[in-house]
Amino acid sequence: MKSLEVLIFLGPPGSGKGTQAEILTAKLNFSHLSVGDLLRENIKNKTVLGKLAARYVSSGELVPDELIIDLMDSYIMNIKNQKEISGIILDGFPRTINQAIALENKIKQLDVNIKSVLNLDIPDQKILNRLSGRGREDDKPELIKNRLEVYRNQTEPLLEFYNDRSLLDSINGDQSEADVSSSIINAIKAEVA
Ligand code: ADP
Fold first, then answer.
1. What is the rounded average pLDDT of the residues 123-139?
2. Which pLDDT belongs to residue 83?
3. Where are the domains of the chain?
4. DSSP 95
5. Using 50, 70 and 90 to split pLDDT, how confident is the model at 2?
6. CA 57 – ligand 1 centroid, Å
7. Is 174 helix (H, G, I), strand (E, B) or coil?
8. What pTM was computed for the model?
9. Domain 4-188 indexed as CATH 2.60.40.1120
10. Do 132 and 23 touch, CB atoms closer than 8 A?
11. 135-144 pLDDT, tens per residue?
């Protein structure tokens, strides 16, 4: 089996994870898993997953771990079978410690390793400005506040989790798109042997 590399993008809503994941995917011949995009597509198509996830996404809460862990599981298995892909960018996964542990267990069984966890750091006020210009259903001011709170409570503990594993790189997300990408590329290179 071939070895796959995983890059994880962490950071609050509006920190630019999706944008940077797109840029990096193209440069690195990686595959991009955006859990949020996948959920919105399932909701739109009224799939079983979509029906289960809809109320969480529309209220800015996290979708239950078991649903998201299954999603990640089948995504990774599918990518493992695509010979031409050299890695995966996980954008929006993990968002809880349980999800991070499930990912660790999954990659232990496969020939996969986490190359780096990139934390896109950005002040709250900038987040509010960015998201209120985006116009997505869950980008209304009250919901943004809720999503930020969910982020602080449930996802931010992952910074310590990955720092303890010496995998965390913090990136200043409050720069131009191009400058954020260069910072990420520098951070990843620094870790390539
Ligand atoms: P943002 O980062 O701007 O919040 P996303 O598109 O990544 O936007 O996520 C949108 C919504 O999808 C979240 O508010 C949440 O309801 C759901 N979601 C995304 N990723 C996860 C995850 N790993 N676990 C649980 N729910 C998730």
1. 90
2. 85
3. 4-188
4. -
5. low
6. 7
7. coil
8. 0.94
9. no
10. no
11. 898 999 999 9
